[in-house]
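Hey, sorry to bother you again with one of my protein questions. A protein chain has come my way and I'm curious about its shape. I'm sending you its amino acid sequence along with the backbone structure tokens. I owe you a coffee for this, so here goes:
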Amino acid sequence: MSFRRAAASSLVLLLVFPALAGAQGFKWWNSDTFRADLGLTTDQVTRLDEVYQGLLPKLASGKDALDRLEKQLSDVVAAGMVPEGDVMNLVDQTEHARSELAKTRMLMVYRMHQILTVEQRAKMNALHAKWEQDRRQGRRPPGR
């Protein structure tokens, strides 16, 4: 597998775990299983948490804004008595909020990616594959 493909895979899989953490769920870098399996150092765990904590307010406000706009859009569409231009304006606002949230998440993923070694990213790929398999089979993901 090329370095670019491996890096892209790592970025994609890292997106899954931080997205869960973004919902105040599973912070994979604090899991004893992930720490041991990846061989994370105390410094790495601290730095990963700093990245997360640093972007958490922006993630939370972005998620709130997106939720509010999606509800508003849903209500407007259900009412059906709003000019199409107003609906499209609300669609644009909603998609902009979604895009901003995705960019913030990707920035977090990128920053976390930089903290891990090449070997740790390869191990993360394997852990992600196992996590996906367990999820598809209805089993509890490892480390939770």
Summary: The two ends are 29 Å apart (CA to CA). Confidence is low (pLDDT under 50) at residues 15-25. The chain is about 80% helix and 0% strand.
